[in-house]
Amino acid sequence: MSVNEPVPTPLHGYVGFDTLTKQIESKLLRRGFQFNVMVVGQSGLGKSSLINTLFASNLLSSKGRMEPSDEVRQTTSITTTSHTIVEKGVKLKLNLIDTPGYGDLINNEHCWEPIVKYIKDQYSIYLRKELTAVRERNIPDTRVHAVLFFIDPSGHSLRSIDIQVLKKLGDIANVIPVIAKSDALTLGERELFKKRIRASLQSNGIRVYPFDHGDQDDEDRELNSLVQSLLPFAVVTAEKTVEVDGRPVRVRQVGSGLINVENKSHCEFLQLRDFMLRTNLHDLIETTGSMFYESFRSKQLLALKESSAKQQAQQHAQHQQAQYASATAPSAQAA
Ligand SMILES: Nc1nc2c(ncn2[C@@H]2O[C@H](COP(=O)(O)OP(=O)(O)O)[C@@H](O)[C@H]2O)c(=O)[nH]1
Ligand SMILES: [Mg+2]
Fold first, then answer.
1. Where is the composition biased (Low complexity) (predicted)?
2. Binding site membership of 252 for ligand 1 (Cβ less than 6 Å)
């Protein structure tokens, strides 16, 4: 045994450090958790409805709830709403970032710019706070932990604008693609569409969440490959709750039938929710900090270092020039 290796020593009485995990838990519970989700996709694809169905609350207003006389709402700027939801004592502070207007126009050439800017701005804000001399103990986290990307249920393939945007977003955040309003497709069409989308993501080198990274064990990787083979989640959102056998069931009326959105054979809403909230919520938050923010941070700091080195070299050259000029000036020569 090397000198540095600690020797397992038996305890002769109860010390109490087994409460460490409880101490951490109660501190975390008091503080709560921050989770920031962005939704990206054309108007009317059910972004607001999916957020409301995911968190089983009425968090974002959906067009479906507006009066028929209301004119079509098309916000073009990014809007953020904050909510706190509590489940069995666990407090989740939610920031919901809506990007209405994405891809709605005929010319969508630059429609992603505000979205990419928003994501990078949050990294930048966090970095500035982190670099101040007197740092806050808990820096408020507005970094986007998950981007739900809504694909039109056309049944054909991804639009070229979507490919471009997915590429850009996949490099800077955790992107989870979903097929919106998948009740528009038959099960066969849905499978074919999903297959085509996966092929398109792969051939375009688009990285979507989940992906393998160094911090994972075999179990994580197994879950990743299972979810990767399921992407994108074909979702249907709920519009009402009905009672079936005395139990509330969240459904959507389609034609004369009802779709139970929590039935795995009807759609993949449940798979998405379980994956996003029950198994990978912590990993989404963690990878945003340890991978995407870290990469932004190192690029920024490197650029800062380079520009200050350049500035120093410039100052040095100016200083030398000034010295040479004063040494060769007529007054200096005369003296
Ligand atoms: N058929 C169908 N309609 C949906 C679904 N999700 C939402 N909708 C409807 O689509 C309309 C627009 O939904 P909304 O959530 O406001 O879309 P957003 O503009 O993307 O936020 C509303 O009338 C919803 O009821 C779905 O899964 N299937
Ligand atoms: Mg909306």
1. 309-335
2. yes
